[in-house]
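Model it.
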Amino acid sequence: MSSLKGTIEKIRNLEAEKKSLLLEIGELQKTADAKATALESEVGALRDEIKALKNLMMASEPSVDRKQKK
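Modeled.
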C-alpha cells in the first residue's frame, strides 16, 4: 500500500507542477506578444521616418537632377 500512496502523492505533485508551468507559459506568451507588438510599432515608425527622409531628399534636389535620375 505504501507504494500506492507514494504514487498518488507523486501524481498530485506532478499535477501541481504542471499547473504552475502552464501558468508560467501563459505569462511568457503574453510578454512575448507584447514585445512583438512593440517591435512592429517601432519598425513601422522607422519605415515612416525613412520614407519621410527620402521625400525630403527628393524635394531638396534641383529639378534637373531629378529628371536625370528617371
